Amino acid sequence: MKLITYLQGDTEHIGVLTPEEQHVVPAEALHLHFADMTDLAVRMTDEQRDAAAAELPQKTAEAIPLEQVKVLAPIPRPAHDIICLGVNFSEHAKESVGVMGKEYGGERKFPIYFAKHVNEAVAPGDSIQGHFDIVSELDYEVEMAFVVRKDILGTKAEDAASYLFGYTIMNDVSARCIQMRHKQWFRGKSLDGFAPMGPCLVTADSFPFPPKLNLTCKVNGELRQKCNTELYIHNIPYVIEELSHAMKIPAGTIISMGTPAGVGMGFVPPKYLKHGDVVECEIEGIGKIINPVD
Description:
Number of domains: 2
Structural class: alpha+beta
Radius of gyration: 19 Å
CATH superfamily of the largest domain: Fumarylacetoacetase-like, C-terminal domain
Number of strands: 17
Strand content: 25-35%
Shape: globular
CATH class of the largest domain: Alpha Beta
Order of helices and strands: EEEHHEEEHEEEEEHHEEEHEEE
Oligomer: single chain
CATH topology of the largest domain: Fumarylacetoacetate hydrolase, domain 2
Largest sheet: 11 strands, mixed
Helix content: 10-25%
Distance between the termini: 32 Å
């Protein structure tokens, strides 16, 4: 099931995409009465999910054409900083050495975690703010992210699937100059407008676990990144077990699993984003999110 957050007039709603993905059925029409997407993700039961999916084909009268609404990021204002993995594909580790140093290449015994602060996630079609007054090296990173449905603490890898609500696409936009200048990644990853997300949140039951999905990124139509989530160095079960050891991960947290090779800094010379570029991130079974650079 594909869930979206959307604006109709000045009011924010949540809803379910119809199978052809040209219409949205309001969540209330499917007996899903929740305040917002985060509330739904942490409170909706499997029985409610399955009942809504079964009832969806019968709700054509309530369906609203997507051209009549404004699709937002599925979770426009995350309750917590997004937990991100860095250098979680082998080929990306290799291309990172030239910019970030040899310690980022080779075998990755332990994951790199960092926080990405998001005041408001960027909606499909909206602009990536380049902040070119302070940013000279603006980069893109297609990533699959997932939303945690219940608190995680002391969880084993074999139980990880029960903690996932659903998956979405995030473009982990990065100011490499700031990232490298500060020798840590928080600020360079967290400027306003650096988190395009969407177009939907796909419930976890839609894919076998852990998912093996193709992901790509194009800039101005040029294919830059192409890989599969099967090739994570540290997969979702590993991440959930390690992160939750001696640290509670609250329900509603978004965790983003890292980007493959092909980012702008990996080219010689680098292919950083500039004003007017268009970035298209796509993940099999989830959809695509397209954003121009402002």
